[in-house]
Amino acid sequence: GLHPRRITGGLTAAEEKALQFLEQVYGSEEMDRETLVDVARTPVHTKIHAEVHDVLTEAIVD
Questions:
Q1: Residue 44 class from Cβ within 10 Å (0-12 exposed, 13-18 middle, 19+ buried)?
Q2: Number of other residues whose CB lies within 10 A of the CB of residue 35
Q3: CA angle 11, 13, 14 (to 5 degrees)
Q4: Residue 13's pLDDT is what?
Q5: Of 42, 26, 33, residue with least CA distance to 61
Q6: Residue 38 and residue 49: Cα distance in Å, rounded?
Q7: Backbone region of residue 10 per phi and psi (left: phi > 0; alpha: psi in -120 to 50; beta: other values)
Q8: How far apart are CA 41 and CA 43, in angstroms?
Q9: DSSP of the chain
Q10: What whole-number distance in Å separates Cα of residue 6 and Cα of residue 28?
Q11: Which distant-in-sequence residues (6+ apart) come within 8 Å of 33 by Cβ?
Q12: Local confidence pLDDT in tens for the 62 residues of the chain
């Protein structure tokens, strides 16, 4: 299996890339939390088991 540090490292890298992308697309204006959750929800829900995808989506946004 994968070591938890490897998973969290990947999530951190994904967060950085996602934020860079969003800043390029939408500029530097702040987005509300609900919008960020909606943006994160789609890829997480297609890749992660249903029991944890809501919790993981919230954690990614936070």
A1: buried
A2: 13
A3: 60
A4: 96
A5: 33
A6: 18
A7: alpha
A8: 6
A9: ---HHHHHHHHHHHHHHHHHHHHHHHTT----HHHHHHHHHHHHHHHS-TTTHHHHHHHHH-
A10: 30
A11: 61
A12: 889 999 999 999 999 999 999 888 877 677 788 888 888 888 888 887 888 888 888 888 88
The first and second tokens of residue 48, run together, are 């992660």
* Residue type (1 letter), 34: E
State how far Cα 21 lies from the chain centre: 12
The residue length of the chain stands at: 62
Placement of tokens 């390029």 in the chain: 24
- CA-closest candidate to residue 15, choices 34, 31, 39: 39
